[in-house]
Amino acid sequence: MKIVHLANHAQNVGNGIVNMMVDLACMQAKAGHEVTVASSGGGFEALLEQYGVRHVLLPQSRQPLRVPSMLAGFNRLLAQCDPDVVHAHMMTGALIARFGAVRRRYVLITTVHNEFQKSASLMRFGDRVVAVSKSVAASMALRGVPEERLSVVRNGTIGTPRFAGVPIPASPQLAHPSIVTVAGMYERKGIQDLLRAFAQLCERIPSAAVYLVGDGPDRAVMETLAQELGIAHRAHFTGFVANPRAYLAEADVFVLASHKEPGGLVLCEAREAGCAIVATRVDGNPEMLDDGEAGLLVPPSTPQALADAIELLLTDQVAHATQAARARHNLETFHVEHVCDAYLSIYEQTLDACRPHRHVLTQARRVVSPDGVVR
After folding, report:
1. Is 171 a domain residue?
2. What is the torsion angle, in degrees rounded to the nearest 10, for the CA atoms of residue 341, residue 346, residue 349 and residue 350?
3. Taking every annotated instance into account, which residue ranges of this chain make up the domain Glycosyltransferase subfamily 4-like N-terminal (predicted)?
4. Which of 142, 168, 294, 319 has the highest Cβ tally under 10 A?
């Protein structure tokens, strides 16, 4: 198949949507398909090239003044690639792929990564709409996407090309017992709840330390909160770390305290690392943790429950060992090859469903060669 992936950028900044797209594109190319990524670029072009994925510069923006150039660039891309499948990972790509071609010869697949955004409703324009969890699929069904056009493919990072052949970074030499979270510094990630929970824990376990791996617009607010809670000396804001595996390897407890989390890749990474995990019971978190078998689930926005769960894992060796072992069970479906196979199957099913329409278009674009053969 000839496949085009659309995303706003390909920057290595910890964006789960981009990471998942890069993994998928590389694995599809490895499987023998002709794959192109169209974006405004970033830090992943070298990796894409290594796997035989072509990157085409196609800035995508919601700004009305940029629409004409964006559509012109997209149609040039179509003329060059003539894809069977266009896979849009963000709203802008979904719109230009659905309405930007005069005669659409491809099927459009959209993946809903962040259904909590209002713009996620626009992903319904795909011929097939893929949700990253059952929770997201249920939300999209409520927004009017027919069940027959909905599929679910959970995110997975095991075997990711982004870390292939890359050794685990040197030890960050964490203080212990250590609590680690890897998350963007956004209010929805529940960092403030973790800090308040940690403040309670400091009274019970004075030697504990928390490491907040990530960056974002709300970092200054979170750092101020740590100061106000009197825990700044034990709360370590590391900033963005492209390869957080060393932090996961040394974590005594991994925490994801999100208020909204459709299908966090980091839970897969924490499970692969064998972390004892605490996460909030929201959106896709239970599914990523096998409904609580692979980690402790607590209500969102409840620092007390968060503190109690973390304390249990830090003080009860049996509970800690049990959770760490369970985290590494049933990881097969989180392998990037499994994710790739699932998407290729969806592509094929969608192509088959749209075959009468595509057959007419294919006939229209066939030409007769000089030797009389129809091509």
Report:
1. no
2. -140
3. 15-156
4. 294
Place of tokens 């292939």: 164
Containing structural domain, residue 8:
2-156+335-365
Does 148 share its domain with 191?
A: no
Exposed/middle/buried for 228, CB within 10 Å: 0-12, 13-18, 19+? Answer: exposed
Q: Which positions ≥6 away from 355 have C-beta within 8 Å?
A: none
The Cα–Cα gap between 61 and 72 comes to 13
Domain count of the fold of the chain: 2
pLDDT < 70: residue spans in the chain: 355-375
Task: Tell me the pLDDT tens digit for each residue of 45-97.
Answer: 999 999 999 999 999 887 887 889 999 999 999 999 999 999 999 999 999 99
d(CA 186, CA 129): 27
* 230 & 311 share domain: yes
Instruction: Output the CA angle 161-167-169, nearest 5 degrees.
Output: 115
